[in-house]
Amino acid sequence: MLFNTRPKEDRKDLYDREKEIEMIKDSIARGEWIAVLGMRRIGKTSVVNVAVKEIGAIKVSINLMRIHDSRKKQYPKHVLISLLIEEINEAIKNYTILGKVAKLLSNILGVEEIQTNKVRAKLTKIRGTDITYIIREMDSIARDNKKQLVIILDEAQELAKVNGLDFPSIFHDVYDNCKNTVIIFTGSMVKLIEKTLKNIEYTEPFFGRYIRKITLGRFLPEQSREFLEKGFEEEGIKVDESVIDEAVKRLDGIPGWLTLFGSEYTFSAKMGTKPRIDEIIEKAINEVRNEARNFIFSTQSPLRYSAVILALDRLGGKGELHEIVKVSSTILNENIPEPRVYEILNRLVEFDFIERREDNEYYLHQDEPNRKGLILAAKDSPASYSI
Ligand SMILES: Nc1ncnc2c1ncn2[C@@H]1O[C@H](COP(=O)(O)OP(=O)(O)OP(=O)(O)O)[C@@H](O)[C@H]1O
Ligand SMILES: [Mg+2]
């Protein structure tokens, strides 16, 4: 079903993205490592899921968002290792052929049974070489079973915050020795991931290795329209063209919003209540509002972040640095130094709350949930009540 709001697993539930799926499958088949990048809710997880499933690889998915804490700049290594062990354990449950790895893990940890909450103290003793040893074992099991091993590192920018593990050398070892293994880096903080991967690619000893980048973009308006039409047809619901027009216009080709819209609209229609477009879009706005508010509050100067966002809004949704400096300073009634505004804008770009385009101007996202959600979050800042 196109309107299922979970990440998709099967191609029949996925609209388009054929080219990207083929690229991912092709890379996996060649043993090339991949980075799948794109803004939030654009369909990264879905596209990777479908490709990996179709190629029949063993999948170990590590969602680094689970260790993410926006207030922390660094994590000790055991935080990552415990996540890694949990996810490998999960994979062992799904693929009986990986059974041997459980034994290996308990040997390394010196315990009978692996329960990450009970072995925390031991996790600090695990070294990078233990991690590569485990991956090598999984790789050889996969090879013996004529399968490939795909390790997905979602929100890969978080790797840069982990202390005490030398990732370039871990990846170097895996790259050279695990010919059956492909690592897929994914995430929405595109700029930060690119930075992290550059560090991995260009730091000895991983120098010169190539990670293929696949970027997912928004649907074009005619694709959004077709997506909605097909989805409603699947659900057996008749919808006015004007509704589709409005959704296409307000949601700007972001598959996650279109899916949410389709699913909520269908739900109301099937319940016999009149679907309200504004209410549905407000749900999406609130999702972004919460995410953005958490982000703004985690910064050192929520007030200035809020002022910069509100300045962009006052400038009609886009502006050059010097204009934003001027307007945000007026809003706060203080002179915010230009380098500081520049830094704040970059941070907002890195976290994908705003865009910086080739014309060097800064833009609020065009879709209503992202744009309004961000502005509302800026207004939520307690100190901005006076704004
Ligand atoms: N091409 C598509 N066809 C149908 N549904 C899609 C498509 N792409 C994404 N979706 C839907 O959009 C939502 C977001 O997709 P998904 O979780 O795969 O995106 P993501 O980029 O991984 O998001 P996040 O950055 O939040 O992890 C889900 O509800 C998913 O089912
Ligand atoms: Mg995802």
From TrEMBL:
Source species: Saccharolobus solfataricus (strain ATCC 35092 / DSM 1617 / JCM 11322 / P2) (Sulfolobus solfataricus)
SUPFAM superfamilies in the cross-refs: P-loop containing nucleoside triphosphate hydrolases (SSF52540)
Pfam families, per database record: ATPase_2
InterPro entries in the record: ATPase_dom, P-loop_NTPase
Highest rank taxon of the organism: Archaea
Name of the protein described by the UniProt record: ATPase domain-containing protein
Domain ATPase: 15-259
Gene3D superfamilies from the UniProt entry: 1.10.8.60, P-loop containing nucleotide triphosphate hydrolases
GO terms for MF: ATP binding
